[in-house]
UniProtKB/TrEMBL annotation:
Taxonomy of the source species: Eukaryota, Metazoa, Cnidaria, Anthozoa, Hexacorallia
InterPro entries, sorted: CHAT_dom, TPR-like_helical_dom_sf, TPR_rpt
UniProt protein name: CHAT domain-containing protein
Pfam families: CHAT, SNAP, TPR_10, TPR_12
Organism: Nematostella vectensis (Starlet sea anemone)
Record field: compositional bias (Basic and acidic residues): 682-702
Length: 1071
């Protein structure tokens, strides 16, 4: 075998080879250094390994300058890796060598590197100190070109410190040097920085001139990556000028370039700003999507500081949609990050937004504390522009406290600042706020202010604020008794709100929330239509505001056309075509109850329940008709729960699920199962003392959602005594929220004060005189007697609103003692349009095959659950939750009656098994378990696990979100759980399990309004399924079961047992 060349031969020959290579080592060194750090695709870790080789070469050559170059390069790599301690160590070592060899030029460069590292650490004072040392050293060496780079760095630090004047001085020094030496490429960066400084000083015109100078140079030299940064800044300038269209064009140009070059971090910043533009245009869905894109990237790269701005923006979206709890969660995330890094300016923006949230929750004290925190910080740093937004917010709080004088002072302070800086959007906000106070004494002046504001909102393309201002104008016309003008204005407001709603696409939760913000306008239009004697239009306005998100979801699910609400005069008649059915639509205005009766082939009947009927059951109404009605409903529900518990026997087990020590499942001992969603007479009175506001974002963001408020001028109703005081819009207040560096960050607004925490039931108001009437008789007299002659069909379908969802319509009792369910088949529906969709849904969309029964979940797995004292205890599941033996009997009974039944009983009733079967598709779903009134959660069995492992609650609580995600196709769902027909009451309707199953694809749902006993439910279900199997529809089966139960004349004949069962949705049969 031929031997290969070896380095182990003649030592002299080897030394000669080394001597030949030695002169080339500097070339090899610089090739490796430049290739490894600037050209190659090496990872940072690989670059460090290569730099160690470069250091060995420098050491071999005993070349101190090469060693310094290695330390510089390593420092930059460590800085990119965010390993700042190692970066500073490398810079210090380089500086030590430079001082040792007496090179001032190398020392100057080392100081510059140290400055860059401290700048990355946001230690701006140290960074400035090192940059100045670098500048002094370069001055000693006469290196004028190098001075330009340091001037730029010093300018950037001054910009970070908020001293834009000094930043501009240093940038211009740099620009002069580059111009002197004809360094055109370098001029582009300085022009860009000067543009940023002008932007910070409020001179968008000069900012744009400098940005365009920079862009021209980058285009000339084909520097595409650099163009992206300038496009980004031009977008910010256009956004400040109110040109959302051009802002979006430039942001998308920047995004395309970043995508082309894989610059993911930079994409995050642009996503954030695109989100701001979409937000300003009222497209909250796209805004949220872009914010979440930005957040994902920042999380991926550990950019914690930048996450703060995105959390703030996400909070603003939730705030605008009325979700105060989620807004607060995101604001507090942002605040924690700013506090962690000592970013006081950022804290001020978030304090202002948190103040807005507290204000919307009615906590004026905490609101004022946070606003004053923000104001102090802005004053400390001379942030005059941002002070304007806080003055607006403070004015709003003072206004709500009735101090109109001080409120006006603050609003005018804000207006002066906005005018000083030419911020038209802020001026519009201030005009609206001042108009609220002006309306107290001069409605003409208030109208002029609203019109001025509207023109500016239109100029800036702010759809949501235009909608709110039109609402304000409409309610002002209403209070002036100019009803036709009010009608036009409210319709324009709704047209714009509908654009916002349609832009949310498939974001179901956001749609549900945004409805809360514009339901007030539908209700105002309803009231105006009643005044103008336009019952068809009134019903259309009421109908279009009901279950909008559910209707939209069903249209998409069933492949039906989805359109914005129609103005067609045939709209109402197109919503129902069922023979043998009368529809009763219940509508509420602040002090009145309106009933609409519809039937196929018959004219629309409208009845406004007269005050005399209320007075006949309650002697001292005093303008609180709806409050009285609410009291009767609350009392009836509480009495039903108490009756069931008081008449229990030894085998009694109720199907309530206690989720905390404060919720023991006994609703008779709870304040109320109702959450208030519509303002009633007492709320209007409260509104007269406290005017709600909404805040407006500052600077580069716009926002706006107005609440309902009550006019403080009792003469504004035009002197009509029976005319209720219609809400007018509240003052808008300016939130804060600023761009971080070049990020445009919006801020939140203060929504309506009476937008209460509907997750928690509120105690019923107690009338001053005790109620001595049977609630079921009272409900009949109020809701049925006025329209009884028109209910000629055998079936009645009720479309409730707000708290009337809790009425057991079938249990209402006529003067002869007969229940309505004995004479009529009864159903309810979320809205006429959702019933129409369910009825017209193609047959193949719902299964007729197989049955799923879930009953009496049991398990020996350990769970952690609060005891009666609120202490968490670990016990076996079956010891923690009472068994429901009759529920198991229900399951066996259904299995014997129906074919193809899957029974998931006791240990088999696990969440995974249930969800898997629902996704497969079944025709009937029957769930017999414990349910919770407040959350709508249903108890299921935890899956098997090791003996000592504790099952988390998510494993044994079935939620509405999980049901909705299944996209089921059941014809009938029977929920034999306590309170399965209840939930949080919002503008969208009752947000509980019934709605969740309808939205998921069920055609009809049988649910319960209050707690039910285990034995009574079995008693009822045997009869119901017997009639269903005989061929009757679900509605007819329910009616016949009620008749049978009443005829039995035993304890279950009482309506507080059978009255809990309600049928929601379409009427179906088994075949």
């Amino acid at each position: 075998m031929r031997a290969s060349p070896s380095l182990t031969g003649d030592p002299l020959a080897e030394w000669e080879r080394v001597q030949r290579v030695l002169p080339n080592l500097p070339v090899i060194f610089w090739f490796l250094l430049i290739w490894g750090t600037e050209i190659s695709p090496l990872t940072p870790a690989q670059q460090i390994q290569l730099l160690k080789v470069c250091y060995d070469i420098a050491f071999l050559l005993r070349d101190s300058e090469l060693m310094v170059a290695v330390y510089w390069a390593a420092g930059e790599v460590y800085r990119e890796m965010r390993l700042f301690d190692q970066a500073l160590a490398c810079c210090s070592k380089a500086l030590e060598i430079a001082k040792a060899i007496g090179s001032i030029l190398l020392q100057a460069t080392c100081y510059n590197h140290m400055g860059h590292t401290y700048n990355k650490l946001h230690n701006y004072n140290k960074a400035l100190d090192y940059f100045k040392q670098s500048l002094n050293a370069f001055m000693k060496t006469g290196e004028e070109r190098k001075k330009a780079g340091v001037y730029k760095n010093i300018g950037a630090v001054y910009s970070s410190l908020g001293d834009d004047g000094q930043a501009m001085v240093n940038y211009k020094h740099a620009l002069c040097i580059h111009e002197k030496f004809g360094e055109e490429r370098e001029q582009a960066d300085v022009y860009n920085n000067i543009g940023i400084a002008y932007k910070s000083l409020g001179d968008n015109g000069q900012a744009m001139v400098n940005y365009k100078n920079a862009l021209c140079i980058h285009e000339k030299f084909g520097e595409e990556r650099e163009q992206a940064d300038v496009y980004n800044n031009i977008g910010i300038a256009y956004k400040s000028l109110g040109d959302n269209g051009q802002a979006m064009v430039n942001y998308k140009n920047a995004l395309c370039i970043h995508e082309k070059f894989g610059e993911e971090r930079k994409k995050a910043g642009v996503y954030n700003k695109i989100g701001v533009v979409y937000y300003s245009l009222g497209d909250y869905g796209q805004a949220m999507l872009n914010y979440k894109n930005a957040l994902c990237i920042y999380e991926k790269f550990g950019e914690e500081r930048k996450k703060a701005g995105v959390y703030n923006n996400i909070g603003v979206v939730f705030m605008s949609l009325g979700d105060n709890s989620q807004a607060m969660v995101n604001y507090k995330h942002a605040l924690c990050i700013h506090e962690k890094f000592g970013e006081e300016r950022g804290q001020a923006d978030v304090y202002s937004n948190i103040g807005n949230t507290y204000y919307s929750l009615g906590d004026n004290g905490q609101a004022m504390v946070n606003f004053k925190h923000a104001l102090c910080i802005y004053e400390k740093f001379g942030e005059e522009r941002k002070q304007a937004s806080v003055y607006n917010n403070i004015g709003a709080v003072l206004n709500s406290l009735g101090d109109n004088g001080q409120a006006m002072v603050n609003y005018k302070n804000a207006l002066c600042i906005y005018r000083k800086f030419g911020e038209e959007h802020g001026q519009a906000t201030a005009y609206c706020n001042i108009a609220i106070i002006a309306n107290i004494y001069n409605s003409v002046e208030a109208m002029e202010l609203y019109r001025s504001a509207l023109a500016l909102f239109q100029k800036h393309g702010d759809v949501i604020r235009q909608a709110e201002t039109w609402h304000n104008i409409g309610t002002l016309y209403l209070n002036m008794s100019e009803h036709p003008e009010a009608e036009k204005s409210l319709k324009e407001s709704l047209r714009l709100y509908e654009l916002v709603f349609m832009n949310l696409g498939s974001l179901e939760k956001l749609k549900i929330t945004v409805i809360e913000t514009y339901i007030k306008t539908y209700r105002c239009l309803f009231y105006v239509s009643i005044i103008l004697d336009k019952p068809e239009q009134a019903l259309r306005a009421s109908e279009q505001g009901r279950s909008r998100a559910l209707k939209d979801s069903l249209q998409k699910k069933y492949g039906l056309e989805s359109n914005a609400p129609s103005e067609d005069t045939r709209y109402t008649s197109s919503l129902f075509s069922e023979d043998n059915t009368s529809f009763v639509v219940i509508c509420l205005t602040p002090q009145w109850l309106h009933l609409f009766t519809l039937a196929s082939g018959k004219p629309l009947v409208t009845e406004s329940v007269p005050k005399e009927i209320f007075s006949s059951v309650e002697s001292e109404i005093d303008g609180k008709e709806l409050e009285s009605l609410r009291d009767y409903i609350v009392r009836m529900v509480n009495e039903a729960n108490a009756h069931v518990r008081l008449n229990r026997d030894e085998s009694f087990e109720d199907r309530s699920l206690r989720l905390s020590c404060d919720d023991d499942g006994d609703e008779s001992r709870q304040p109320s199962v109702l959450a208030r969603g519509v303002r009633t007479a007492t709320e209007i009175e409260r509104g007269r003392k406290s005017t709600e506001v909404r805040a407006e974002p500052s600077k580069n963001s716009e926002d706006g959602n107005f609440p309902e408020t009550s006019s403080t001028d009792s003469k504004a109703t035009g002197g009509t005594q029976n005319q209720p005081q219609l809400p007018t819009q509240a003052p808008m207040s300016q939130g804060t929220g600023i761009p971080q560096e070049s990020d445009a960050t919006p801020s939140a607004k203060v929504p309506q004060e009476h937008e209460e925490d509907t997750c928690t039931p509120h105690p019923p108001t107690c009338p001053e005189t005790p109620i001595h009437h049977d609630p079921l008789e009272v409900l009949y007299r109020l809701l049925i007697s006025p329209i009884e002659d028109h209910l000629t069909e055998p079936e009645v379908v009720f479309i409730p609103e707000d708290f009337t969802f809790m009425i057991p319509f079938g249990a209402m009792k006529d003067p002869d003692g007969r229940f309505l369910a004995e004479r009529k088949r009864i159903r309810t529906g979320p809205s006429l349009s959702t019933l129409k969709l369910l009825r017209e849904c193609p047959e193949h969309k719902h299964s007729k095959q197989s049955v799923l029964v879930v009953a009496n979940p049991r398990s020996n797995v350990n769970v952690e659950w609060p005891d009666e004292f609120g202490q968490l205890k670990v016990k076996p599941f079956s010891d923690t939750f009472a068994g429901l033996p009759k529920a198991s009997e229900e399951a066996k009974m259904i299995r014997d009656l129906l074919p193809d039944v899957t029974c998931l009983m006791e240990e088999r009733a696990t969440k995974n098994a249930i969800l898997a079967k629902l996704k497969e598709g079944v025709g009937i779903v029957h769930i017999a378990s414990h349910g919770n009134a407040r959350t709508g959660k249903i108890l299921v069995a935890p899956g098997p696990r090791p003996h000592d492992e504790i099952a988390p609650s998510k494993d044994f609580l079935l939620t509405m979100e999980e049901v909705y995600s299944c996209q089921i196709n059941a014809r009938l769902v029977v929920l034999c759980c306590c309170h399965s027909g209840t939930g949080e009451i919002r503008a969208e309707g009752v947000m509980g399990f019934t709605r969740a199953f309808l939205a998921a694809g069920a055609r009809s749902v049988l649910a319960t309004l209050w707690q039910i006993s285990d034995e009574a439910t079995l008693y009822f279900m045997k009869r119901f399924y017997g009639h269903l199997v005989s061929g009757l529809t679900a509605s007819a089966s329910l009616q016949q079961t009620i008749r049978d139960t009443i005829a039995d004349k035993d304890k279950y004949s009482h309506p507080y047992y059978w009255g809990a069962f309600i049928l929601v949705g379409d009427d179906v049969t088994l075949t």
